[in-house]
Amino acid sequence: MSEGRVKGRFAPSPSGRMHLGNAMAALLSWLSAKSRGGEWLLRIEDLDPQRCRREYARLLEDDLHWLGLDWDEGGVDGIGPSGPYCQSERSDIYEAALERLKATGLCYPCTCTRAELRATQAPHASDGTVIYPGTCRPAVMPAPWHEPTRPCAVRLAVDSAGEITFTDRRCGPRRSVLARDCGDIVLRRADGAWAYQLAVVVDDALMGVTEVVRGEDLLDSVARQIYLYRLLGAEPPEWSHFPLLCAPDGRRLSKRDSSEAMDSLRARYTPAQLIGRLARLAGLRPDDEPCSPADLLQLYTEQ
Length: 303
Ligand code: GLU
What we know:
303 residues, alpha/beta, three-stranded parallel β-sheet, three-stranded antiparallel β-sheet, globular, binds glutamic acid
């Protein structure tokens, strides 16, 4: 466990109503932080203006209150030492981090479009994205940053990362060679949108987050995030990735499963019944007995 005060966080994207999977992420990150005597922070990851809506962020807060999961810091109107807590309001902070990364000589402008990348024969990463073949990368890195004459994406070379190893509290030891597993990382898209990988690391570091508890779909991002922590001179948090919930037919639960969205769940369950169901699904209890989040603190383990 990290020294000093534990701080966990829940970092949802308000691109729709929260569903059972998000509620699980909220509950497990809350339990982990609180069972260690720590604080729990709520950050709104609304980087994508096409998909994210303020009204969804408000509903999300209402759903968390309904579940009995109250945050110590953050939220839509959150005032706190590390605010603002909506990523859409943190552009200046990401800009400053990007300048520091550019100063390492490892960033370069990239003009490749998604369609061009799809058309290449380059191999694909486990999440289906193309492993960047290095088309725009200068022949020798590090290289000084030259401001491009038209809007371009900013990419970060990953060769110098070598092999990255870490131990996830649930998934155990992991290793990754970024050059092989994902290729050079986009930090900012040509349309100016900040990449998730940059924003999440900058925010978790500046907000003093000491543990990240979230679904296994983000396990592959950890190595990229550790590399960014290193380049920014910040201490990475502890990691814990739990298995994703599945629909009855075995598919991963998604926003399309409307019966597992919070509006439908709130119509069918009381908060205690829903927390009880989540506790069984998380393997904390053998049955669905209604309970409160606080009732589960003693039972919370990651094995
Ligand atoms: N915003 C991401 C999501 O809603 C989660 C990011 C994270 O936990 O690192 O899927």
